[in-house]
Write a structure and sequence with these properties.
Residues 29-121 form the OB-fold nucleic acid binding domain. Its main location: cytoplasm. InterPro entries: Exonuc_VII_L, Exonuc_VII_lsu_C, OB-fold_nuc-bd_dom. GO terms for molecular function: exodeoxyribonuclease VII activity; nucleic acid binding. There is one protein chain. The chain is of the alpha/beta class. Helix content is 48%, strand content 20%. It has helices spanning 3-10, 22-26, 31-45, 83-87, 127-142, 170-181, 200-214, 238-246, 263-267, 275-325, 327-370, 372-393, 395-400; strands spanning 49-60, 66-71, 76-81, 98-108, 113-123, 160-165, 187-192, 219-224, 251-255, 270-272, 405-407, 425-430, 433-438. The strands form three sheets. The protein has a five-stranded mixed β-barrel. The chain has a five-stranded parallel sheet with strand order 7-6-8-9-10, with helices on both faces. A three-stranded antiparallel sheet has the order 11-12-13. 17% of the residues are buried.
Length: 446
């Protein structure tokens, strides 16, 4: 690999002195990142393929996984056959056995070791069949037998299905079981034919042509369960492949397991990984429609229930309205109105009576306030008050408190000393009488 190519995949080297720059140091991969990048690059560059070699260092673990080395004269590579794939193999593995393995390259990151994850193993004696398979595949493909343009669309909901297979095989039982489990409704006709051995391809081709001539099938399925390449070889024979391609009824090829490919798979209108997968594919649209119908039925039932409930409410409303319009209801309404008006009349009468009573009480209060008797009583009280004030201010009241009123002979009150002369006759008025007196010489300074 050139420096440029290496730089494009893993990054360029540092400066001219060979030391990485600070930026390159920051971008350096960890070992885990580097190994994962190698793993992704190998997985993307090398697709699953067949590899021929000799088994060496075979180790079967208690977990069911099988580890071995696949080698030839020039190199070797680690290989692993996981438990599920190992259980499906019909080849008894042993050291020194020449085999063809089908698998994909991967990297065991913990050790940084690349290996082949094996999906299928066949003895190298089968290599001849594999070469014949590849040669016939190329020839038929060049004829356009496998072109998508000549394939027919699979009906989404076939009503009548014909299954060309062995009536005693497990494949047809699995096919029927899945259709029943998924609730598929339709007609399934098992078209019996040999699926293995001499004459099997011709028998299946004849059955396909007979089914096509009946004109009752919407879909044909051809297939069988898994097996070795020799077991499945009838589905690679040219006569059957051409019969599948020429059939005017849509054909699904359902042969073997997921990793098994036959030429019928390429010639058929659709390939199913297994017969069970074909049953699921055929019934999927039916199941989808059933689910849609179930949801539609539930929705319709809900809408119908809501519509019935609304109609019931409307009916109740109309009944109530009809009752209101009936003569008895109108009479009842008249009674209600009469009772209401009687109540309102009684209430108005009580209110008017109360109002008149309040007005009468106010008039009585006003009349009482304006009557002569009241005014006389008030005037009498005022007169009494004035009389008491007059009595309190009268000379008699003063005399009663111990004072004496001096008067001259004419009876005029003597209010000042200067008005009295020596020897002048005066009258002293007491509360209980009067006394005549004669004034003496007044004392000065008093």
């Amino acid at each position: 690999m050139s420096d440029e190519g290496a730089g494009g995949l893993f990054g360029r080297r540092g400066g001219e002195d060979g030391n990485p720059s600070a930026d390159e140091t920051q971008r350096a991969f960890s070992v885990t990142e580097f190994t994962r990048r190698v793993k992704d690059t190998l997985a993307q560059s090398i697709r699953p393929c067949w590899v021929r070699g000799e088994i060496s260092n075979l180790r079967a673990q208690a977990s069911g996984h099988v580890y071995f080395v696949l080698k030839d004269a020039g190199a070797q590579v680690a290989a692993v056959l996981f438990r599920g794939d190992a259980a499906r193999q019909s080849v008894a593995l042993r050291d020194g056995l020449q085999v063809l393995v089908f698998g994909q390259v991967s990297v065991y990151e913990a050790r940084g070791q690349y290996q082949i994850i094996v999906r299928a193993v066949v003895e190298d004696g089968v290599g001849r069949l594999q070469r014949e398979f590849e040669a016939l595949k190329r020839r038929l493909a060049d004829e356009g037998l496998f072109d998508n343009a000549r394939k027919t669309a699979i009906p989404p909901m076939p009503a009548t299905i014909g299954f060309v297979t062995s009536p005693t095989g497990a494949a047809v039982q699995d096919f029927i079981r899945i259709l029943k489990r998924r609730g598929w409704r339709g007609w399934l006709v098992v078209l019996p034919a040999k699926v293995q051995g001499e004459g099997a391809a011709e028998e299946m081709a004849a059955m396909l042509r007979a089914a096509e001539s009946l004109g009752i099938f919407d879909l044909l399925v051809i297939g069988r369960g898994g097996g070795s390449l020799e077991d499945l070889w009838a589905f690679n024979e040219e006569a059957l492949v051409r019969a599948v391609a020429a059939c005017r009824v849509p054909v699904i090829s359902a042969v073997g397991h997921e990793i098994d490919f036959t030429l019928c798979d390429f010639a058929a209108d659709l390939r199913a990984e297994t017969p069970s997968g074909a049953a699921e594919l055929i019934s999927s649209q039916f199941v989808h429609c059933v689910e849609r119908m179930t949801r539609a039925g539930e929705t319709l039932g809900k809408l119908l229930g809501e519509r019935i409930e609304r109609a019931r409410d409307q009916l109740d409303s109309l009944r109530a309205h009809l009752r209101l319009l009936s003569p008895s209801a109108r009479i009842e309404q008249g009674h209600l109105r009469l009772d209401d008006m009687a109540g309102r009349l009684a209430s108005a009468f009580q209110h008017a009576t109360l109002l008149k009573r309040q007005q009468l009480t106010a008039a009585r209060s006003t009349f009482a306030a304006r009557s002569p008797e009241t005014r006389v009583q008030m005037a009498s009280q005022q007169l009494l008050g004035l009389w008491k004030r007059l009595q309190a201010a009268s000379p008699r009241s003063v005399l009663n408190r111990g004072f004496v009123i001096m008067r001259d002979e004419a009876g005029r009150p003597l209010a000042r000393r200067a008005e009295v002369n020596a020897g002048q006759p005066v009258v002293a008025e007491f509360a209980d009488g009067k006394v005549r007196m004669s004034a003496t010489e007044p004392e000065l300074g008093l």
